[in-house]
Design goal:
The protein has helices spanning 20-29, 45-62. The chain has two helices and no strands.
Length: 63
Amino acid sequence: MSCAKECACPKVECPNHKKCCACVLKHKETDSLPFCLFPDKDKSTANYYRALKARYESVQNAH
């Protein structure tokens, strides 16, 4: 099953590449986050929370 038009993950050899649903399940099982959640390919926790905060603030400002 393919869920994404564009896959942000650079791991093209991964069997779950371009299979978002399978990828999310795999990461849930391993208690990790998929690469697509990290903007600018920066997998640091600080960068993830910065992006999450910006997204939250943009939704709050839209209302």
